[in-house]
Amino acid sequence: PQTIFLKDYAEPHHWVDTVHLTFKLAPRATRVMSKIVFKPNEANTGDLILNGEDLTLLSARINGAAIPHEQTDRHLIVKQADLPDGPFTFEAEVEISPETNTALEGLYMSSGMYCTQCEAEGFRKITYYPDRPDVMGVFTVRVESDLPVMLSNGNPQASGEGWAEWHDPWPKPAYLFALVSGDLLAHSGQFTTMSGKTVDLNIYVRKGDEDKCAFGLQALIDSMRWDEQVYGREYDLDIFNIVAVDDFNMGAMENKGLNIFNSSCVLASAETSTDATFERVEGIIAHEYFHNWTGNRITCRDWFQLCLKEGLTVYRDQMFSGDMRSHAVKRIEEVLQLRARQFREDNGPLAHNVRPESFVEINNFYTATVYEKGAEIIGMLRRLIGDEAYYKGCNLYFERHDGQAVTIEDWIKAFEDVTGRDLTHFQQWYSQAGTPRLSVTESWADGSLTLTFTQSTPPTPGQDDKRPQVLPIMIGLIAPDGSEVVPNTVLEMTESTQSFTFDNLAERPVTSILRDFSAPVILQRDIDAKTRAFLLAHDTDPFNVWEMGRMLAKDTLVAMITEGTPPTTDYLDALKTMLSDETKDPAFRALCLALPSQDDIAQTLFDAGTTPDPMAIYEQREELRHILASFLQDILPDLYDKNDAGAFKPDAEGSGKRALRMAVLSLLTLNDQGKAAQKLFETADNMTEQAGALMALLSAGIGQEELASFYAQWFHDRLVMDKWFMMQIAVAAPLEAAHIAQNLTHHSDFDMKNPNRFRAVFGALQGNHGGFHAPDGAAYKLLADWLIKLDPLNPQTTARMCGAFETWKRYDADRQSMIKDQLKRILGTPNLSGDTTEMVTRILG
Ligand code: DPP
Ligand code: ZN
Questions:
Q1: What is the pTM of this model?
Q2: How does pLDDT run across 615-627, given as a tens digit for each residue?
Q3: Residue 779 Cα distances to 605, 648, 764, 815, angstroms
Q4: Where is the Peptidase M1 membrane alanine aminopeptidase domain positioned along the sequence (predicted)?
Q5: Which domains does the chain have, with CATH numbers?
Q6: For ligand 1, atom 2, which residue shows the shortest CA distance?
């Protein structure tokens, strides 16, 4: 495999004008006829270089005549000397086999339907083409199929018995191409845009799923309206189609006018989907829709710029979800995710820049760093320049680059131009990996408070010396009586050490630092118990209130694990007060009740210089759950009853109540031998509560009967079955997890070719920290066995799942050596894919 470098970027030798494609669909012998009008790039002339993989070439012509060409297993090349002067038409016919395409990249089949996934480099498995995002063409597509529904990008142009033609007027790179054909039903609606155009909306699904589309359709309509109201962006075709596909490597894909979704990210119904699923569906529908402007109308020059569209689009979908639900709750959930996935990545061997400088397989860079840290950068930019300049800059970017394939520099330049600021230093967020550590000291004299911040970023692979980053640090100052004397203020830190002074203060205030988590850093603050309790009670920033509670919970667990110290009454009382405070949003209280994850505690211990012992972490966390259940026993039943949300509605209010109710139930089950949970399991009319009850029972070591009846009730529903697989592994005791997972791989409903099912089992296993790191190494071996089996079928999903091992250097010598052995065994597998080779090599370091 070859390493590709950002610094080597060169424009293509040829641009594309128009593309005509005809697909004669057949499971093992699909014919693809292409007719592409090329024009030479006068700025960089040379051979015609087309990508193509796994294609059988039947014919190739230029301007109607056969041509001399070279063919490798990756390219078709026509020498410059053999090309006509000026524009020319290239025509080819190839044969491909969608039915045997298990990699789910290019054109493939899923449950009897044809579908495509072309991002990043899948189009080259469909036909010969300059498969790079800076080459944009106008596509016209004819589909010939035995199946009734035939879809492609753009607007429908003509159709007849067994064929349909689509035309997309907007030039696009090949990665946004899509085609679907199947025996599908549409759930339809309409949207009238800000300029009064009517757009037809369809969600296409397999028969039997049509009653799970209403929520997704509403989310689409809400997204379309939001992008008009907030960013002034209107939709630009007559039709917008979404298709649900069961076998899909990612969550969803933003193909122009034809989004393709993993069915788990679009289908939703009260009976089969949890509130978390509803929230995810809403967020992903928005995400893919928002790509229409940030990604499609303006795309990436090359794949190193992936964060240009992903970071920005994640930021946009986060803002949307906050507007639809609660910004405070959403922000806490984002930070939990960021810490669990991105900080974890930044702290290990896979750390990389938000804009990487080299890769072997771009599919390996669809990461938390590119997506979530990429989104944090946009949020910081907005905080630094303010809302008005942010939207002005976005507008300038949209106007200036519409129809272009651009870079991070182009994005930043728009904000420099509207603000007159030099953002060179800020832009370093894209080119320096690692999570900054931020510490702070305070000094007080004569009515002046001085905050002195120090930042440093630990080395990451290939980057030993780090420079200070630009940090927007939002703070507030609170007087001893609880009144806020300095409201939200953004301090702009640019140096390694920097002080900020606040004068004319009557009394020494308490400082609330890094409000709303205004920068993606690890804040190291020595804070005494009194100050923490004060902030817990008086801070006006909900994020920091939660954060204080979080720190208390973490300190409690760390003390239990390392010193055997029982929880302090400070912590227990604070939690009780918080839970009983009915002025606080139930969703927020649920987040406060949730304990830090085992993985989070492991990283915390490691950062503090202690080798984490996964068994001790598991046991002490369980012990704390029991202590909480007993300490809170007076209030739990009442909290449980009061937060019955009644008839199911997947909105913020209902889901907040259910979240709190389920968190309470999990503890209550430790007190009542499962009575309340068993009752709820039987009577619940929605999956949130049914699954919540089952999880509460399983977490308490009971519930096997309910698990069996859950199967009997839901075995016909593949998405609920994913939950059934996942739940029992996720909460298994450490010494049983690998065994349960292994047994489930023999279950007749296990199908390794379906990424959702594979992830249900092995994602749950790696997510069960104690189980994954059980002392016998059984889980390491089991995962490695299955990664080796999956790799020849689906390299992309295999490579991504290797991330389970990325934290291996945290642990003791025994575990390190067991993991290393498994990684080496994977790496030693004959014909291992480039995807997996790159990941394992990087993890081994
Ligand atoms: N479909 C993936 C996403 O939307 C990749 N573009 O993030
Ligand atoms: Zn995206």
A1: 0.99
A2: 999 999 999 999 9
A3: 22, 38, 11, 11
A4: 217-429
A5: 1-182 (2.60.40.1730), 329-342+356-392+399-524 (2.60.40.1840), 715-845 (1.25.50.10)
A6: 253
